[in-house]
Amino acid sequence: MIIIGIDPHKASLTAVAVDNSGETVARRRFAVNSGTATQLRKWSHRWSERRFAVEGAKGSGRGIAQILLADAEHVVDVPSTLAMRVRVLDTGGGRKTDTDDARAVALTALRHKGLHAVRHEDQSTILRLLSERRDDLVRERTRVLNRLHQLLRELIAGGVPTGLNAAQAAAALRRVRPVTATDACRRDLAKELLTDLRRMDSNIKGNEAQMRDAVAATTTTLPQVHGISTVLTAKLLGHVADISRFPSADHFASYTGTSPLAASSGETVRHRLNTGGNRQLNSVLHTVAVCQSRDVNDGRNWFWPTFRDGSTFTPRVVPVGRGPCGR
User: Fold this and answer.
1) Which of 117, 137, 158 is the last residue before a domain boundary?
2) Cα–chain-centroid distance for residue 72?
3) How confident is the model over 185-244, as pLDDT tens digits?
4) What is the pTM for the complete model shown?
5) Is residue 238 part of a domain?
6) What is the C-alpha to C-alpha distance for residues 193 and 203, in angstroms, rounded to an integer?
7) For the chain, what is the domain count?
8) Which of 91, 167, 255, 312 is the most buried (most CB within 10 A)?
9) How far is CA 91 from the centre of its chain?
10) Does residue 52 share a domain with residue 151?
């Protein structure tokens, strides 16, 4: 069996083939263009038994990984952090070249049996793209709204209330009667920002409609869980993709950063907050946990156990989101 490790970049990719003993048998650098996939196929067909390992198959290596998968090749995804550790141990130092990186990717696939196989892009990929697009739109809307709010405060004595929206901003602008050329410029800029704000609102609504259709196509029951909206469902499914890749709820909690980290020393046993993991999923689970602990539902009963007479215990001290992970 030959393992072909691929280190992808924007303008090139480097492939290194190793045998079962970890010895390098071939290497080649390819320029990224319309013929890259064909060249890689011709180069790799000399080995009848082969397996590909791509660094960052969900990032910069997505394109070549999906092409190889379409050719019925077996492809695994190698995390860059894992490949980096293998490279350091293999080279014995900090030397780094594309060839060393590709060889480290191949050695990781050879020795690590827990790597995930690359899957064809499906509905979860669409949901992730839509979710990321919504995040971008919301950030841009917030920036535009903050700038508009500042201009209105400069134009109107006493400013405008917080929680500003497009309708309120338009009503406030209609009352503005600029006296100086500077104020007239501020008013014109505010009108432009108001147009941008309305466009952002329209784009966000359109994005949410696309999300609803994409979520409906998955036939998931997640929206039936209290605290999980269509937007959160799209983000959950988009980032988790294949749930079977997590052997247990504990593995999923570790991936989302909702499980505590052991920080024990000697006879002292303690844990600390996990600030790692997938922070997008961590944010989703935090939102769900807050909603379930606040409203009357089964989740609230888990967070706030009660006595029969109605008095309550101190709420369970767990990392936010750990409860939903375990359930």
Assistant:
1) 117
2) 27
3) 999 999 999 999 999 999 999 999 999 999 999 988 988 888 889 999 999 999 988 888
4) 0.79
5) no
6) 15
7) 3
8) 255
9) 32
10) no
